[in-house]
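REQUEST ID: PR-0412
SUBMITTED BY: lab tech R.K.
PRIORITY: routine
TASK: structure prediction, single protein chain
INPUT:
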Amino acid sequence: MNPRSIASYAAEAPQLLQDFLTYIATIRGKSYQTAHEYYLDLRMFFRFLKQKRQLVSLDMPFDEIPIDDVDLPFLRDVTLSETYAFLDFIAHERPQHRNSPSTEYGLGSAARARKTSSIRIFYRYLTEKAALFDVNPVAHLEFPAQKQSLPRHLTVQDSIDLLQHVQGPFASRDFCILTFFLNCGMRVSELVGINVSDIREGSLRILGKGNKERILYLNEACQNALDDYLPDRLTPHERDKNALFVSKHRNRINVQTVKWLVKKYLNYAGLDSNKYSVHKLRHTAATLMYQSGVDVRTLQTVLGHANLDTTMIYTHVNDENVRAATNRNPLAALRRNASDEEEPSSPEDTQDNAEFFAAAYETEDEST
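STATUS: complete
OUTPUT:
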C-alpha cells in the first residue's frame, strides 16, 4: 500500500469521510498533507460530537474514540451550537502538543480557523457535491476572530549571522538549505520535495500547495551554495534517488529534520529559536525582497500565493518608515503662534500645503 494513500491513514474512517478525502485529493487537487489535515480535523470533530452526545463512555480517552460508525443521520443532526461548543473545547481543553507531558492547553485562533474551514468545506461537499443534504446545517458557521499580526522576520545581519554559524559534517547541505530559504522564500514542504531533476540552467521547479508548479530563479548565492553542496551529497537509497537534500541515513530529508536543524543554527547564532522558526525564514525572504523594491505582484508569484491579500501582509513598514511618513504630514512643522501680532499663513502657503498633501498620497499609492 502506498504510504501516502488515503487508505493508509483513514482506513478506520467512515465511507462518507473517505469519499470526501478522495474528492479533495483528486478533484480539488489538494496535496497529501492537506487531505491528511482535513482528516485529522474532522476526526477530532466527530470524536467531540460522540462524546458530547454521550454515545461513548465518559471514561474512554478522547483520542481513542472510534469514528467508523459515523453515518449520514449523525452528520445531518449537527447544530451550530454543537459546532461552537467544539471550537470552545479546542480553545480551552485541547492540548497544544498531545505527546508532551508539559504541554499547555488551548489551540490558537489560526488552528481553530483551520478546523472551522475543514467543517465548512466538508458540509458544503455533502450538500452541494454529493447532494446528500437538502440543507447545510453549518452554512452560517462563522470563522473565529484572528489576531492580525505582522510576520516576524530576521534582519539582514541576523540572516548573515545565521549562515555564518553553519558547521558540522553536513555543513554544505545545511548552508544550501538555509540559503534557499533566505533567498527564495520557499515553504519547508516545498524544499524537502525538491528533486535534482527540478534544477535546470539556474532555475528551480517548485511543487507548491495544491500541486501547483512555479519556477524560481537561483541567484548567485543559491547557485554557489548548490555547487558547494552537490559534490558532498550522499548517495540516497533507490526510492529517494532523485532527492536533492539527503539525510545522514541516505533518505530524502524530511520536514522535521529541517525544522530541527534550523532551530539548532538559530541557537548557534544566538537568535531566539522560540521566536523564530523555519517558516520565519520564508517571512524573512519575503520581507527583505519587498523592502529592496520587489513589487507585490512579483512577490506573490515568488511565494506561490493564490491570493494577493496573503502577500499584502509583507507590505508592512518599519519604524523608520512610520517616522518618515509622520514627518511628511503637511502639519508636521506647525507651531502655536507665540504672538497675536504674527500674521497667519498666506493663502499661497495653504495651497502649497494642500498640493504637497495630495502629492504625498499619490506617492504612497504608487508604492503599494
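NOTES: Strands lie at 199-200, 203-207, 213-217.
REVIEWED BY: pending
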